Amino acid sequence: MATAPSGFPQFDHPPVVETVIGVEFAPIDGWEVPHFGLFWNELRRTYPKTQMVPALPSMIEKYGKEHLYAGTEPSVEFIKGEPPVRAFFADDASGKLLQIQRDRLLHNWRKTGRESAYPGYAETRVWFTTAWERFLSFLASNELRRPDVTQCEVTYINHIERGAGWDSLADLPTVTPLLSGKGSTGFLGVPEVTVLTARYLMPEQRGRLHLALQPALRNADQREILQLQLTARGMPQSSTTEHVLEWIDLGHEWVVKSFADATSTVMHNIWGRRV
Amino acid sequence: MKNWFSILRSSTGRTTTPQKNLPYTLVYRASPFQPIAQSVEITPYAEASVWFLDSVNEVARLSNLPEGWDSNGSPSVTPKAKAVAVRLLMNCAYKPLPEPHLGAVPGGGLQLEWSYGPKCLELEVFPDGTVQFLTVDDEKTMVEGVLQPNHTGQIRNHVGWVTA
Fold it and tell me: How many CB pairs under 8 A join A and B?
């Protein structure tokens, strides 16, 4: 959020710790485990570390009353055969993380230390675009078809540390105007745990904005945080890179403007809001 | 990914072992949060065991005890011991365990103890962060040893033993 386009909210010290730009596509026929290694071999200078983890499930935004509660209720699914996998290709120095699975390509930036600063959307967009183009080129050279993109996604994860604007969950209204942590009579007192999730439809069913706020401990340094996660997801007009990037720019706009709308001016001052 | 009770490992690192000879993978999810491609790991209070938050606060309280808290000149709990103790709690945050008993140990360490029926698991965190375990079963058989620096798997085994 530090180098947002003109007219977007900008902060000197945004609390963002991770961003994700990605696409989901119909599973690529013929994509097998060896392709992970073949593709990494082309990228290993940029992403020297690898890790295999389970695949993320498909997340397609659906619209209409019948899908009002989709994704929030418990569900059980059976997957035939081996569990699908996802590859992490990472560079700890820059915070870059490329995630590939049979139906996804995601590019993350992760804050790797207290001094590492968010490089800005313009930079992370280039990282995603470069990885996506190389992926398309790899598929073509291995006679695999170009993916049909079904969803684009932009996620920002913000860690609002305890002591910087809030000390207990009674202070939540100081952080966000969306939630009051206090009851009307004071009977309940301060909540032990509070979570807030909300969804917003983007106009013309271009997608959805998912917001989740919850208290947690950050595993790496055990600091108490409020994690504010904003994900915009939707379908691009077509699978061309131009339309994919057009949607990702829209998703970025929604995430950044939603972040400013969902947080208070007190917090904006702490984070050094400029615009 | 939040709260995926499945035989797959979630992106927050919780794992269970796939069963052999199963032609299908069972995935069960129950969470108000959508699975996301987050890689920075957190332990959400809302998804951890009910004792987790109290225990973390108790470790913080014990770590703030002044020098000489035991009337015998013991130093305060070291930051290293505190950090390792919280990490141990994080490793157990999603396990079906009862609330642990926590205490400061003279010399600057901390002790965590779970009693479950006739079984007992005791973890002592030394001031330098090393961890010694002691298990006692219903026949008073004691096993003790030192946890490896990357002790996630060992902790999982010990917790599994306690709750089995």
Answer: 124
Task: Give the residue numbers spanning the domain of B153.
Answer: 46-163
By the 8 A CB rule, do A220 and A95 touch? no
Q: Beta strands of chain A (E only): which ranges?
A: 16-25, 49-54, 75-80, 85-91, 96-101, 104-110, 149-161, 196-201, 208-218, 224-234
Contacts of residue A95, Cβ cutoff 8 Å, sequence gap at least 6: A108, A109, A110, A111, A112, A116, A119
User: What is the maximal distance between C-alpha atoms in chain A?
Assistant: 67
> Cα separation of B143 and B122, whole Å?
10
d(CA A119, CA A109): 8
Mean pLDDT, residues B22-26 taken together: 52
- Within 8 A of B5 by CB-CB distance, chain A residues are none
Residue B88 lies in a domain: yes
The CB density around residue B116, as the number of other CB atoms within 10 Å, is 15
Q: What is the least distance, in Å, from the CA of A265 to any CA of chain B?
A: 26
| ipTM for the whole predicted complex goes beyond 0.90 | no
**Average of per-residue pLDDT across A212-232:** 93
Instruction: Let me know whether B10 and B76 are in one domain.
Output: no
